[in-house]
Write a structure and sequence with these properties.
It comes from Enteractinococcus helveticum. It is built from 8 helices and no strands. With about 130 residues, it is an all-alpha fold. It has a single domain, classed as Uncharacterized conserved protein DUF2267 (Globin-like, Orthogonal Bundle). Helix 2 crosses helix 5 and helix 2 packs across helix 6. The longest helix is centred in the N-terminal third of the chain and has 17 residues. The chain is globular. About 35% of the residues are buried.
Length: about 130
């Protein structure tokens, strides 16, 4: 999936008025993924993302990565974007599900297996 397609998807799913805000949401989710210890799953996942997101996901330093739950993930995304918790939850869901749809089935499965189960509701879009 191309970056423009992901931006469009996030914009539609999160009901965002501007493409810039949708782009910023994708980048905030990518930055937060870079901070999270996912047992090395970032590299393969990032390799299948558009370059704009891949470089951000890969910028995390393994020494500084930490494990945190989905709630903390949403909080970090919200802090980056200066959003309320409910807005952050919606945008995180839209962006993470779009990113996971943009990779192969095998990579999606690997990434979901590397994340705790509380991330599952954010991983697919069935709304």
């Amino acid at each position: 999936m191309q970056m423009t397609e992901m931006i469009d998807l996030v914009q539609q799913r999160a009901d965002i008025n501007s493409t810039q805000a949708a782009n910023d949401t994708l980048l905030a989710v990518a930055e937060t993924l870079a901070e999270r210890d996912i047992d090395g799953a970032q590299a393969n996942f990032a390799a299948q993302l558009p370059q704009e997101l891949s470089s951000v996901v890969n910028m995390g330093d393994a020494k500084n990565q930490v494990k945190f739950d989905a709630e903390e993930f949403v909080t970090r995304v919200g802090s980056r974007l200066e959003l309320s918790e409910s807005q952050s939850r919606k945008r995180t869901h839209a962006a993470l599900s779009a990113m996971l749809e943009g990779v192969s089935d095998g990579e999606r499965t690997d990434m979901l297996n590397a994340l705790p189960t509380d991330f599952t509701p954010y991983a697919t879009w069935n709304v």
